[in-house]
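2024-03-11 09:14:02 DEBUG pipeline.ingest accepted 1 chain
2024-03-11 09:14:02 DEBUG pipeline.ingest length=136
2024-03-11 09:14:03 DEBUG pipeline.predict start
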Amino acid sequence: MSSQGDFNEFEEFFKSICKHKLFTGGFIEVVTDFKTSRYFTDEQIDEVAKYVELQSNAGHQVFFGPALRKEDLGSKRSNDENILYMLSLWVDIDSPEKSLPADERLEQAQILLGDFLVALTEYNIEPSFIVESGHG
């Protein structure tokens, strides 16, 4: 993120996908480098965005999903047993061939995304968000 506008959009994105105010409790889990987690409450949405920006700028890989978690597990990663609720469908589209160079993996992922979007039109579904991390 490079500007206040980007930060505000990111914060609104989290608020939109997590819908904290519909239920009480729940934590957003942010995973860094596939190893450790940090959990945030609905009162900490602004801190989520700042934390993700800080970790990303420090060169870490940062991941999250739209499922709110039941418990704060400290730095331990969560699994499906810790899901409180999820109000969205999350699809991660990556190239299945991990041995290809990055640009070819990204190209394959773009093809898969296009095919997926075409398939959604058969059901009159449009994505609310498409996040492209650029890693294929």
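2024-03-11 09:14:41 DEBUG pipeline.report The chain has three helices and five strands.
2024-03-11 09:14:41 DEBUG pipeline.predict end
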